[in-house]
């Protein structure tokens, strides 16, 4: 379980970096060269998703829960905005959902 969650976390960081760098270019006046590592990061993100052993749809659904948590950490650590209690409550709710989706007992 820890290995799966760690893989989800690395996957989320790759996706966020891949989207954040074009944001820096388009909205914050960054260099167009930011698109090169952005593309590499998004390619890494796509590849990381293939490493999960579950069915793709279940993996993507569960991954969404980890993405929410990592995005809030990004909000705090990179954007300098501390998540409020509603952010944290929502993240806890989503995280509980990901645990049910990914680790719930299956019949087959």
List keywords for this structure.
108 residues; mainly alpha; 4 helices; flat
Compact description:
The chain has 108 residues and is mainly α. It contains 4 helices and no strands. Helix 3 packs antiparallel against helix 4 (85-103).
Q: Can you count the helices?
A: 4
Q: First CA to last CA: what distance?
A: 19 Å
Going by helix content, strand content and strand pairing, the class is: mainly alpha
General shape: flat
Tell me about this structure.
- There is one protein chain.
- It is built from 4 helices and no strands.
- The protein has 108 residues and is mostly helical.
- It has one domain (2-103).
- The protein starts with a helix and ends in a 5-residue tail after the last helix.
